[in-house]
Design the sequence.
């Protein structure tokens, strides 16, 4: 059974950068649409960025466009989220997730996923 484990979260000052990783085990990511989601205290979980199986299609939330970049390394069975120019409003628990036979838009907008990681905390504060 596919399992996902996130890492790379932490405390960073506004304007700083973090790179989140999501390592998969128990199966291959090759055939999955992948995504990063976040949940701030008192708010619903939102789709941050999603990436197609081929890597040719991406979706970004408006709030992170131009600052975040999603990528995948199928050889390492790992997904990444590079986060630059971080803002306090980026604070939250970040989750990676995967789903099959779903577009990046559907995954991110409707939070559609089959497997979720346990999350990693990102705190942006001075």
Sequence:
């Amino acid at each position: 059974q596919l399992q996902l484990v996130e890492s790379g979260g932490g405390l960073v000052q506004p304007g700083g950068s973090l790179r989140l990783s999501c390592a998969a085990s128990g199966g291959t990511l090759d055939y999955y649409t992948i995504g990063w989601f976040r949940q701030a205290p008192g708010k619903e979980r939102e789709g941050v960025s999603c990436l197609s199986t081929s890597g040719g299609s991406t979706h970004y939330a408006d709030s992170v466009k131009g600052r975040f970049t999603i990528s995948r390394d199928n050889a390492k069975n790992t997904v990444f989220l590079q986060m630059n120019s971080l803002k306090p409003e980026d604070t939250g628990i970040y989750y990676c997730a995967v789903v099959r036979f779903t577009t990046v838009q559907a995954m991110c907008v409707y939070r559609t996923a089959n497997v979720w990681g346990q999350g990693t905390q990102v705190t942006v504060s001075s």
